[in-house]
Amino acid sequence: MAAETEGEGGTGTLGKAMAVLETVALADRPMRFTDVLAVSGQPRGTLHRQLSHLVQEGLLELRPDHAYVPGLRLLKLASASWARNEFRAVAAPFLEALHRQTGETVHLGVLRGREIIYLDKVESRQAVRMNSQIGNASPAYCTGVGKAALSALDDGALETILEGLEFRRFTPQTITDRASLLTELAAIRGSGIAFDREEHEPGIRCVAAPLVDAGRALVAGVSVTGPAYRVGQQQLDDWAPHVRRAARAIMEELSARLGPQR
Amino acid sequence: MAAETEGEGGTGTLGKAMAVLETVALADRPMRFTDVLAVSGQPRGTLHRQLSHLVQEGLLELRPDHAYVPGLRLLKLASASWARNEFRAVAAPFLEALHRQTGETVHLGVLRGREIIYLDKVESRQAVRMNSQIGNASPAYCTGVGKAALSALDDGALETILEGLEFRRFTPQTITDRASLLTELAAIRGSGIAFDREEHEPGIRCVAAPLVDAGRALVAGVSVTGPAYRVGQQQLDDWAPHVRRAARAIMEELSARLGPQR
DNA sequence: AAGATTGTTCCATTATTTGGAACTGAGTTT
DNA sequence: AAACTCAGTTCCAAATAATGGAACAATCTT
User: Fold this and answer.
1) Could you give the residue ranges of the DSSP H alpha helices within A27-139?
2) Among B259, B253, B262, B256, which residue's Cα sits nearest to residue B90?
3) Does any CB of chain A come closer than 8 Å to the CB of residue B23?
4) Does pTM top 0.85 for this prediction?
5) How many CA atoms lie within 13 A of B34 on its CB side?
6) Pick from B5, B159, B209, B260: most CB atoms within 10 A?
7) Subset of residues 1-60 in chain A with CB less than 7 angstroms from any atom in strand D
8) Is B77 in Cβ contact with A112 (below 8 Å)?
9) Is the pLDDT of residue B32 over 60?
10) Radius of gyration of chain B (CA)
């Protein structure tokens, strides 16, 4: 069996199973056996057993038409993850305050690798269905929260992320090269504020501030987002102090809560 | 290595990893290594590696104080699971209609083994934070949606669930023996409506109707829930037709959508 | 500072996974 | 209807990864 010459920390069987799970769960349509086979590159027998195991465990579901879809056990596990996340719980009231101050949608996102994972969202009209954003992952380099978070990393950690990062253009404004991103991050480091000027989704702008704990174990961001037709640069600038203040307040509360416990 | 004499379908390594993940993720407080060791019953070395792998995969997180907490990757996976669930998507508008008709909280839950997993929820005031219920799992035998779903099973499937089912008393009204549950299910089968009269949470009542597809591959329920001080038996009876109608409408829409596709 | 407890590493033994090939069954074409 | 394809499933010797006991290191406690 071909050995991975390029070796990082291997999680053996579990890692392979998770890779399969992720390709199926994050695809945007149901995949059939052959679809998975094509992308996974594994031998048929092996893949078949892996998928069977995932189905038996309830992580995937095999519909009668042989299509694999994400299973319900994922929901069950994630619900616990969300409910018990201390960071989210601490931040929640501040997010709501920020929402009341600005009247627009507020996001809380955490950096995981090269992605921002949205932990919470507060919005006025819940025209978009509840939950739509929570748990979603977006690339860090083209979102407000993401750039704010990146700006808080030390050089080593940032380098690790930049290395081999592939830029994808989502809109005409998306940053698509390393140099521009570094310049932008330097600016953000100076001001403590990151903007997303329709870089990820056309018509969507936002102001964000970074959230970092002392040991940089937690790197995250808060943002206020609004539609471009209603939110100009002036408006973003006006919101900036509020966002920065919310970020600072969350981190103070967090260290106050975590400090005394030990 | 001791072989499991009592053998069901084994998912090998993955199954063991998931068992560990679940004990940690579903615990109601962070567990340290020794806590997990005590419940898992596995040798130290083994458990340590399993936990390390789970952490490396982002399914668990190891905080600086050596406490394991559910990881963010779970959220990411679950968000996909939720967003892509076709059943949920089809049901959503009907749930909202039911909410408008009754003014109270509406739930959609799917049976998975002996548990109901809540797929969606529509409520007026979102005093309780968004998402609080989605993905949550409750025992089927003491919830409205759960009993409705159980009533739709055939004898074989029901027997499998009842076998070795442990009844836990949540309130004075909780059903705590097999015979009473069977009587109750027979009644539900007759009327097509299940009630939860404060059997799971004190002060909470609900009316539910079963949702089953032709092959019983999908067994679920819809419900309207309200606080006991405001919702009497009369009110539940009045809601029943609406709930039943919503259930029927969802299944019709679902078969209409799934039918033509193949 | 000694002792107890908790967390981490090591490595020969043992179980599980691997992957090629052979098999089944459904759907299509001649 | 028979021959052909293609998707999905099963099998088993060889290769790999998991196991678990024990030694080790780092913490707390007394």
Assistant:
1) 33-40, 44-56, 72-83, 86-102
2) B253
3) no
4) yes
5) 0
6) B209
7) 1, 3, 10-14, 32-34, 44-45, 48-49, 52
8) no
9) yes
10) 20
For residue A18 the two structure tokens come to 């998770």
Q: Of A144, A149, A133, A120, which is closest to residue A200 (Cα–Cα)? A: A144
Residue of A nearest to B15 (CA): A57
Cβ atoms of B76 and A135 closer than 8 Å? yes
Q: Give the Å distances, CA to CA, from B143 to A88, B162, B182.
A: 29, 15, 14
Q: What pLDDT score was predicted for residue A261?
A: 42
- Whether A131 sits inside 8 A of B134 (CB atoms) is yes
The answer to whether B225 and B205 have CB atoms below 8 angstroms apart is yes
pLDDT digits (tens, 9 = 90+) for A175-230: 999 999 999 999 999 999 999 999 999 999 999 999 998 777 789 999 999 999 99
Q: What is the mean pLDDT of residues A120-124?
A: 83
The residue type of B260 is P
Give the closest residue to B131 by CA, choosing from B112, B118, B113: B118
Q: A56 at the B interface (CB within 8 A)?
A: yes
Tokens encoding A166 = 């592939």
The pLDDT assigned to B85 comes to 87
Q: How far apart are CA A150 and CA A258, in angstroms?
A: 24
Do B211 and B247 touch, CB atoms closer than 8 A?
yes
Candidates B79, B112, B122: best to mutate against A (most CBs of A within 10 A) is B79
Reduce the secondary structure of chain B to three states and give it as a string.
CCCCCCCCCCCHHHHHHHHHHHHHHHCCCCEEHHHHHHHHCCCHHHHHHHHHHHHHCCCEEECCCCEEEECHHHHHHHHHHHHHCHHHHHHHHHHHHHHHHHCCEEEEEEEECCEEEEEEEECCCCCCCCCCCCCCEEEHHHCHHHHHHHHCCCHHHHHHHHCCCCCCCCCCCCCCCHHHHHHHHHHHHHHCCEEEECCCCCCEEEEEEEEECCCCCCEEEEEEEEECCCCCHHHHHHHHHHHHHHHHHHHHHHHHHHHHHC
- In chain A, whose CA is at the least distance from the CA of B120? A130
Contact B152, B210 (CB under 8 A): yes
Tracing tokens 């949606």 back to the chain, one arrives at: B145
Using 50, 70 and 90 to split pLDDT, how confident is the model at A235? Answer: very high
Cβ atoms of B141 and B169 closer than 8 Å: no
Q: What is the pLDDT of residue B258?
A: 67
Segment B167-185, tens digit of pLDDT: 999 999 999 999 999 999 9
Alpha-carbon distance A134 to A95, whole Å? 14
Distance B17 CA to C5 C1' (A): 26
DSSP three-state, residue A103: coil
Residue A126 has what pLDDT? 53
CA distances for A104 relative to A44, A98, A137, A160, A211, angstroms: 50, 9, 21, 34, 20
